[in-house]
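A quick aside before the break. I want you to see a complete sequence-to-structure record at least once, exactly as it would be stored in a machine-readable document. Don't worry about memorizing anything.
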Amino acid sequence: MEEKWDTPVDRGMQFSDGQPLLGNHKTIRGVVGGILAGGAGALILNLPLWAGVSIGMLSMAGDLLNSFIKRRLGKTEGQEFPVMDQFLEGALPLVVLVPLAQVSLAGGIYLLLIFVATAHAGAKFLNQILRAEPFAGYTRRLRSRTRFREWRGCQTIGYPFHPIINIERSLYYNAFMKTVFKGLGLYAKGKQNALDIHCRELEFVFPNLPPAFDQYTILFISDLHLDCMEGITEKAREVVYRLSPDLCILGGDYRTESWGSYSIAMENIKNLLANICPKDGIFAVLGNHDCLEMVSPLREIGVRFLINDNAAIERSGDRIWIAGVDDPYYFEGHDLEDAFIGIPENGFSILAAHTPAIFKAAAGFRPNLYLCGHTHAGQVQIPGIGPVITHARVPRKMIYGQWQFGSMMGYTSSGLGTSGLPVRFGCRGEVVLIRLKRGTKQPIQSSE
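That is the input. The structure line, written in tokens, reads:
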């Protein structure tokens, strides 16, 4: 059914000049959608339904005629033809709209000019932003929804309208929630709690862990948000400087906001990582607050990003694999199949993902351990109730701490920093030192 709707209107037919009659971009889905949009618009504007459907049909007819003309002039599909691209699409519906709305000829021409200008701007935004890769080496599947989110949060930084198109988050947290906590007299205490960062040490025991990796240690840090408040980077450095892990994995969310400059966050991450010198390097994945543009500056200081990729760690002839996926929550860039390519079926693997949300799909690839964050353990927990907001549709046991799904072990970190407001109640910020052990017992030890 999906393929039927995506069938080109001209069904691949060619004109006498050997060029497509219309082109593959003009699909049954698009034509039907345009007609239905006309009908819906009529209902919204309290116009007769027949008028809306007629306007939609005439607009689509103008669009198809325009494509026919462009093919005859040698224009390729998607190639811009300023003014002409929108003229017929806007002019033909005036046959119905002008007499129906009792608009004068001058008024009709004015409406046409407004439509052409608006539609031209929209077409440029669609073709140059939503349907175009923002830079060379772009790694995500090109989808309009993803590109809009990237443009909104990452590629309009420095533009005057940048705060405006992201205003809802600022209003909710900085205006509403901040006022609530201050009004309750809890804001200062919450900020103090947010700086109470600790190292949580865990053991995970696996019968199939390669012998050379018995007692292997991994430092896992998720939801760093190192620009969330003054002093958090210094507190984090105090916690990690004494640690000597074999490997470090960063779980994403490097800046506090999902929009705005990330320069401070990058500098603070570099300062923090200067205190971490794992023998087998630092690996990282992206979170929903992150931009692909962050990858390059962190690669320069030795961080290896696993964006739907994996890496093998070798010791004394034994191997384990670290797999990582792109953000599954907001940008929906994760691809587990790509992440596990080349990992042997019986190979010992650890999956790093920003959120626990893909645990069911991940289990199908049989990782031994799934490391994630994103939930902040709720960040604010109510006594006797626990976390209220988690931003993850998973069983509550997966909101924080150790869990198991089938044979796959998992750990969801409460994160290092804070998101939204720089406060915590009922849960501490953390870095996690994980020790892998070879044995038969399930992991039960957890020490503060």
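Two observations worth writing down. The chain has two domains: 2-132, 177-447. The first helix runs from residue 2 to 5. We'll return to this after the break.
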